[in-house]
Specification:
The chain is mainly α. The chain has a single domain, classed as MetI-like (MetI-like fold, Orthogonal Bundle). It contains 14 helices and no strands. The radius of gyration is 28 Å and the shape is globular. The N terminus is likely disordered.
Length: 310
């Protein structure tokens, strides 16, 4: 008792008890995160800084990096003011992104609403819709290129069956971009359907039951309950889909290689052509930096919109 009483008295007088040191635990935590930090620095930050550095120089990848002529902002100035093809590819990229995001998001939401209701074999239909997304985009592009073929393609065969004139899907200025967008929509709709389905299943059923008791029909329930509660999912799908669409390369490269007459040429594809076909790595790096800035702005908008109001 004589030993415990002074200890209690010290606690009662406000003296802080002796804390257990956490040095080993802190070191263990730093040890776990160190590989991730090293990976990000080595494979993300340093390559990005090198890209910015190269964008300020003129480099043909044949000379040493240390002897690159410094150009300052000339590469950026040339792309913005003197390169009409770069402006066209930027416009093509945004047209592709707008069409892909709008159509795939609406279709994915519609399919998710159907599968969220009373449907037989829901697991089977989810797998069927999700299957294209796990397939290689290059393989999908090759298959669709054959479907679009003007001579032996399936689509022109169907048109011929109904005695309709054939179409040059990938070789026409009017149909090339819509044809590429159609492939992108078919490829991605299953993935966003799964995300929408997860958002729909997180909405409590009691809310819908209360609305039914109040006399709300299906449209009113969708407009007043589903859409507001699905808003974070809608924003996530829209932003992620937009970011992916702005970086499209494989579909345009395999289906059309940017043609006809650069009608489907995108920023990333033009970046690839500038770097490896014309060995102008400085201008290609400047394109990459500008595309990064656009994606950064959209990401900041995403964070702003997804921020919960206090």
């Amino acid at each position: 008792m004589s030993i415990a009483i002074p200890s209690v008295a010290r606690v009662a007088n406000g003296a802080a008890p002796r804390r257990r040191p956490y040095g080993r635990r802190a070191l263990a935590g730093y040890g776990f995160i160190t590989p991730a930090i090293v990976f990000l620095i080595g494979f993300a930050l340093l390559p990005f800084l090198f890209t910015v550095y190269v964008s300020l120089h003129d480099w043909n990848m044949l000379t040493a990096v240390t002897s690159m002529p410094f150009r300052g902002l000339d590469n950026y100035r040339y792309l913005i003011f003197e390169d009409p093809l770069f402006r066209q590819t930027f416009a093509n990229t945004f047209v592709f992104a707008a069409g892909n995001v709008a159509i795939s998001s609406l279709l994915a939401l519609g399919v998710a609403l159907l599968l969220n209701g009373e449907v037989r074999f829901p697991t089977f239909w989810r797998a069927v819709y999700f299957l294209p997304y796990v397939t290689s985009s290059v393989a999908i592009s090759i298959v669709w290129a054959n479907l679009y073929h003007p001579s032996y393609g399936l689509f022109n065969g169907i048109l011929e069956l109904f005695q309709l004139p054939g179409a040059r899907f990938l070789a026409s200025l009017e149909t090339a971009m819509p044809s590429v967008i159609a492939v992108a929509v078919w490829h991605a709709v299953g993935y966003y359907m799964i995300i929408f389905l997860a958002g729909l299943q997180s909405i409590p059923l009691e809310v819908y039951e209360a609305a039914k008791v109040d006399g709300a029909n299906a449209w009113h329930r969708f407009r007043s309950i589903t859409l507001p509660l699905l808003r974070p999912t809608l924003l996530f799908v829209a932003v992620v889909n937009t970011l992916g669409s702005l970086q499209v390369f494989d579909l345009a490269f395999v289906l059309t290689n940017g043609g006809p007459v650069n009608a489907t040429n995108t920023v990333v594809l033009y970046m690839y052509q500038t770097a490896f076909n014309f060995t102008r790595m400085g201008r290609a790096s400047a394109m990459a930096v500008m595309l990064f800035l656009v994606i950064l702005v959209i990401t900041l908008v995403q964070l702003r919109l997804l921020r919960e109001k206090e």
